Amino acid sequence: MSTRASHRRKESPPPARLGMRGCAVFALAVILALWLLTLSILSHAQIPAAAHQYRQAIARETAFRFGVTGPVPVIAAQIMQESKFNPLARSPVGAQGLMQFMPATAAWAGEIAIPGPVQPLNPAWSIRAGVWYDRWLYDRVKTARTECDRWAFVLSSYNGGLGYVYKRQKLSAAPGDWATTGAINPGIHPANQKENAHYPRQILGRWQPLFTSWGRPVRFPCN
Question: Does 197 have pLDDT greater than 70?
Answer without folding.
Answer: yes
